[in-house]
Amino acid sequence: MTDFPKVTALDLPPLDPLPAETQRYFDICAEKLGLVPNVLVAHAFDIEKLNTFTALYNDLMLAASGLSKLDREIIAVVVSAQNRCWYCQVAHGAAVRELSGDPMLGEALVMNWRMAPLSARQRAMVAFALQLTTASSSVEESDRQALRDAGFSDRDIWDIAAVTGFFNMTNRLASAVAMQPNAEYHGAHR
Question: What's the pLDDT band for 1 if we cut at 50, 70, 90?
Fold first, then answer.
């Protein structure tokens, strides 16, 4: 029997044994990341939900886009900071540190993104993501135009909105079940 960690306040134990395809995916994560992210373990009680989550995450965060991987991780962190999502602030803060090579950037984004060393383009992206997070019905054409003026295409605006929406959803799920970040994230890429 696999010894799965308790990763949420809910008693939803992962399947044991995992289906072979899922186990291969977890093994790839362990090899590439040095861990299996607790968010995956948390979803593993229902393989269809896990597969849906990972397919959407991989598409939004890793597929071709006018947004860099760092841009997408910056969105993840600032949205998660606004929502006070413990799991995502820690996990995606580590990703920001890794992708940027800046050991302080993740924390700056969590504590006060305005103090972070972001480009004008990234600042426009973050401001829009936060507007979507806090007051989505207030978005007007002038807000989209501000992104275009900062160098984003309409496709990029779609991607900013999709990443923002995904993290607003996952933040709420992580908070609802008291999802805990892997301890390894705290010291990663410092």
Answer: very low
Burial class, 138, CB count within 10 angstroms (exposed 0-12 / middle 13-18 / buried 19+): exposed
Residue-wise pLDDT tens digits, 26-75: 999 999 999 999 999 999 999 999 999 999 999 999 999 999 999 999 99
For residue 109, the tally of other CB atoms under 10 A from its CB is 27
Asked if 31 and 178 touch (Cβ cutoff 8 Å), the reply is no
Report domain extents, the chain: 20-62, 69-187
Q: Is the pTM of this model over 0.90?
A: yes
CATH superfamily of domain region 20-62:
AhpD-like (1.20.5.810)
Distances (CA, A) of 126 to 33, 74, 86, 187: 27, 8, 19, 25
8 A C-beta contact, residue 181 and residue 90: yes
Domain over 69-187 is classified CATH 1.20.1290.10: yes
Dig out the tokens for 180 from the structure.
């805990």
Tokens at 40, concatenated: 């995956």
Distance separating alpha carbons of residues 168 and 83, to the nearest angstrom:
8
What is the C-alpha separation between 140 and 122, in angstroms, rounded? 19
pLDDT, position 2: 57
